[in-house]
Amino acid sequence: MITKAILFIDSSNFYHSLKEQKCLPFDADGFVELFRELSKLYDIEKIFFYDAVKNSLRDPNGYSKQQGFHTRLSGADKRIIIKTRKLRYLADIRDSKIRQSCRKVGIRNLNIMKLRYFLKEMGLIKLTKEKGIDVQLVVDAIEEARKDKNMRIIILSGDADFVPAVNLIKTYSVEVINLHPYCGSSNELRKACNKHILISFGKSGIILK
């Protein structure tokens, strides 16, 4: 008999792991395949998907694409519950400000776009920040664990910030599984969970092991 489970997806963390692993794009069809493979191991009753929603005025193109993705994802599997919070926008570092700062320190003839990309890749500038998404995931996971001790909790993330929540859930005698790709996976989170499942990408598709 396949064990019942609920899947919680930290979409931002998963996206950045896939980006680092060069496994993008990963659209609704990719998630459907992932759910299909995971359903061979567990009876997935619910799938919670957490995402920070872009501002339609500041980033209309990004907002439109994100909404389209949410529509395709929710339509692909009736078990999916999408939960969102607003994306928080930090200070906007404009090109004019970068040029001004370059002149001050004596840097000339610099490609501004390349500099901006370099700073973002190094994590030295961050224009957006998620607010409350991880907390919502933790609250929902704890609530589901309290409802049914026979239910497995599967967390798709590599974020070590979930370790305290995992430890709390385990006090309810509920098994917690960490589902993760290779890149961006926290060793601390894997060890805190009862077990972990690696998402691999082969020529034939997604492999869970």
Descriptive notes:
- Strands 3-2-1-6-7-8-9 form a seven-stranded mixed sheet, sandwiched between helices.
- The two termini are 19 Å apart.
- It is an alpha/beta fold.
- Helix 2 packs parallel to helix 3 (60-76).
- The mean pLDDT is 89.
- It has two domains: 3-87 and 130-208, 3-Layer(aba) Sandwich (Rossmann fold); 91-126.
- It has eight helices and nine strands.
- It is elongated and about 65 Å long.
Total helices: the number is: 8
Q: Classify the beta-strand content into a percent band.
A: 25-35%
Which class of the largest domain in CATH terms?
A: Alpha Beta
CATH architecture title of the largest domain? 3-Layer(aba) Sandwich
> What assembly state would you assign to the polypeptide chains in this entry?
single chain
With strands numbered from the N-terminus, the spatial order across the biggest sheet is: 3-2-1-6-7-8-9
Main sheet makeup = 7 strands, mixed
The counted number of beta strands is 9
| Distance, first to last CA | 19 Å
Brief synopsis:
This protein is an alpha/beta fold and 209 residues long. It has helices at residues 11-20, 28-38, 60-76, 95-104, 112-121, 133-147, 163-170, 187-192; strands spanning 3-10, 42-53, 80-86, 88-89, 128-129, 152-156, 176-181, 195-202, 205-208.
Reconstruct the topology from this structure.
Blueprint: E1 3-10, H1 11-20, H2 28-38, E2 42-53, H3 60-76, E3 80-86, E4 88-89, H4 95-104, H5 112-121, E5 128-129, H6 133-147, E6 152-156, H7 163-170, E7 176-181, H8 187-192, E8 195-202, E9 205-208
Parallel strand pairs: 1-2, 1-6, 2-3, 6-7, 7-8
Antiparallel strand pairs: 4-5, 8-9
